[in-house]
Design brief:
The protein is α/β, with parallel strands linked by helices. The chain has 10 helices and 13 strands. The strands form 4 sheets. It has a 6-stranded parallel sheet with strand order 2-1-3-4-5-10, sandwiched between helices. Strand 1, helix 1 and strand 2 form a beta-alpha-beta unit. The protein is globular and about 60 Å long. The two termini are 35 Å apart.
Amino acid sequence: MSYWQDKRVLVTGGAGFIGKTLVPKLEGLGSSIFVPRSKVFDLTKEKDVENVFNEFKPDIVIHLAADSGGIGYLKSNPGKVYFNNVMMNTLLMEASRQYGLGKFVTINSVNCYPENAKIPLKESFLWGGRPEKSVSGYGLSKRMVIYQSEAYRVQYNFNSVNLILDNVYGPSDNFNLSSARVIPALIRKCIEARDNSADNIVVWGTGTPKRSFLFVEDAVNGIILATEMYKGVDPVNIGSILEISIHDLTELIAEMVGYNGRIIWDSAKPDGQSRRCLDVSKAKKEFGFDAKIDLRDGLMKTIEWYNMRQKI
């Protein structure tokens, strides 16, 4: 707790999904938090980034902000996604360097890994090929900030760490079907089909790809531990070791919400990478991180939150 006491922490994307869990936790540890809102500070513009630093004068930056979404959104908007993320990442880190920031923490994505890398994904595999085609604009934009960190450490001795998060889910996730990732999209589809007595739901792909998922509270604990304890520039995976196929995940969510209709698999839509599961041994070794919340418990918390929001 003493690490965070009276620290000024800039959390980009702090009003978003992960930020809604991270920010209150940091405030409870004694930090002063500033969350730049996009209506006031456009982080793809240099002047706005400079204004953020001049106004708040942070000790630490935790960079959560990203132009992201589900596979459909990323596939349809590769140029926009690439530009927005590269500009945010580049400008924020350069401003942090010029300002003399104490620590810069980048939150990266499992989508930055090469399409054909061996499973489980080790940090050393990162530069072994291109990301899967449907998410490559996003994956490559996120990979560039890792190189920027490495270059700035060599030339400027800039203190930045890079965390590669698994597929994060939980309360406050994005449930908009046009941009939602797999878990919130499936929860919404199944609940709406149940409530409307629909005969079927349509799910993208074949259901065969396997993924691992990280509950948001575990993700936040990993971010906090790494900020406090990790001093290396090499990226570190933060995730869960449990893999599940999209088919089995869909069946599980349908069962948990009480949807008994038919599941139609639209194989004309992309599956994405066939498997994605992180090797998390480095996070355990470097700062003692372990995911604590299993998938069923995390799904129940997420479903309960979504149901409550629908009643408001």
